[in-house]
Amino acid sequence: MENLRTVFVYGAGISGQGVSQVLADRGDRVILYNDDEKKLDPAFLEGFTQKGGRVVFGEDPEPYLKESSLFIISPGIPFTTDVVKKARELNMEIIGEAEEASRLYKGKWVGITGTNGKTTTTTLVGRMLETLPVPTTVAGNIGFALSKELEHMGPESVVAAELSSFQLEGTTTFRPQIALIVNITPDHFERHGNMENYIAAKAKIFANQTPDDVLILNYDNENTRKLAPKAKSRVYFFSTEKVLSEGACVEDGWFVLALDGRRDRICKVSDLKIFGAHNEQNVLGAILCAHFAGVTNVNMAKVLKAFEGVEHRLEYVTTIKGVPYYNDSKATNTDSAVKALEAFKDGHVVLLAGGHDKMTGLDDFMQMCAKKTDALILLGEARQRFCEAAKKNHVKNIIMIDGSFEDAVNKAYSIAKPPEVVLLSPACSSYDMFANFPERGRVFKKLVRALAAKAEEEKA
After folding, report:
1. N or C: which end of the chain has fewer CB atoms below 10 A?
2. DSSP state at residue 226
3. Alpha-carbon span 310 to 296, nearest angstrom
4. How far apart are CA 111 and CA 92, in angstroms?
């Protein structure tokens, strides 16, 4: 192969393994490097090493860097590590896995980012794209390495790609034909340092767009709205608060697509099975993405009416003794938890919050807790700081759990009475107790279902 390269892939997680496999399949020489020893799937290892791939754990990276022409960093690894510094000293090209995927994939991109709502929106867009007469897929931060998911997708295909700030940080030439920023609120300061850097990472989604491309922004979110003048692409807004003359909005209880002088009603807000103002924004963003991808209004409406939401996002679990239980484990930041609380218009929430602290501000969240919660159950590493902020903002009935996650769920069960609801919406990542937020959500559902079975037995 005349274009044979040696590629150094840093990080042996899902993204690192995915891109390593794809590059090895293409004939590149690949070095998959991880700082620590890591148990890898035997099937992956066998296929990868058969194609000449090498796995290196914890050795001095310099000799491997010197023989490589490209450095691909996994999204979970910050750009401040010693390995990255050595690569910079060697003047290597450093890109993220998403950037490499964009270089390999020749189809059409619908790129979706945002602090909250991007998984729901990407899933919705993916369902709408499925109505098109071309191959489509959903990939990215939603669970699979982009490069692996797109490996066999041809130039006529379309991908709905969920992109985190970590993935976008590693892009240099990535150019989605349709880009959507659902919203931007404080998050990931432990990685980006401050709001300015975080917004800059999100804004990379449209950095390479041209006037032929489309950028969709949330008019109701100031951080997002302010990005419009920086775009070279055509900008369209959506809003749940303002009736727009151009874009997508809610008008007289309908989702309305307003473009080129037309005002098309897609479906009624009341037709949705998902609830909450944040989901109305997700729907509007999805409608605009789907429209510019060629989806008909009729097919959008069909998808919206059938959509039941995504796992771990305001997911109804069951009702025990008249009290509904909701799993919102995906609320890994305060803004997401605020949106979950807002969705319960009557309040009376018994809220389980806390986990691994991202060190963002807590006042807005705790003010919403003061309005909406009958009890605030705090657990995990963040509980002390959360408790102090709750007291400062006059939250009543604060319950500290120094024990396990199960203790917290049992406590909620013991105190919740109708018309209350029990809500897991942690406003924190899960790393102090769980591998990730899906594991936390699955454990919550298992514990709740066990309590439901126990309550049934007691009734009998």
Report:
1. C
2. T
3. 23
4. 27
* Number of Cβ within a 10 Å radius of residue 284: 29
Give one DSSP letter per residue of 193-214, joined into a string.
Answer: -SHHHHHHHHHGGGTT--TTSE
Cβ(258)–Cβ(248) below 8 Å: yes
Beta partners for residue 239, in sequence order: 249
Tokens matching residue 31:
């070095």
* DSSP letter (8 states) at residue 331: -
Tokens of 439: 């594991």
Q: Per residue in 144-178, pLDDT tens?
A: 789 999 999 999 999 999 999 999 999 999 999 99
Sign of CA dihedral 371, 373, 375, 376: negative
Answer whether 204's CB lies under 8 Å from 179's CB: no
Paired with 320 in beta bridges are 323
Q: Residues 367, 368, 371, 377: what is their CA dihedral angle, to the nearest 10 degrees?
A: -90
Q: For residue range 80-131, what is the model confidence (pLDDT) as tens digits?
A: 999 999 999 999 999 999 999 999 999 999 999 999 889 999 999 999 999 9
Q: Please give the structure tokens belonging to residue 350.
A: 């018994």
Across 399-408, b (16+ Cβ under 10 Å) vs e yields bbbeeebeeb
- Of 189, 169, 409, 445, which Cα lies nearest the Cα of 318? 445
Under a CB-based contact definition with an 8 Å cutoff, are residues 38 and 10 in contact? no
CA atoms within 13 A on the CB side of 331: 25
Distance CA 403, CA 101 (A): 43
Tokens of 10: 């840093």
User: What pairing do the DSSP bridges indicate for beta strands 108-113 and 54-57?
Assistant: unpaired
Structure tokens of 279? Answer: 């989901």
Stated length of the chain: 460
Spatial separation of the C-alpha atoms in residues 341 and 334, rounded to whole Å: 11
The contacts of residue 314 (CB under 8 Å, 6+ apart) are 274, 275, 276, 279, 326, 328, 340, 343
* Residue 173, burial from CB neighbour count under 10 angstroms (0-12, 13-18, 19+): exposed
Q: What tokens appear for 33 in the block? A: 């490097």
pLDDT tens per residue across span 299-308: 999 999 999 8
pLDDT of residue 228: 98
- Read off the tokens for 192: 């980006």
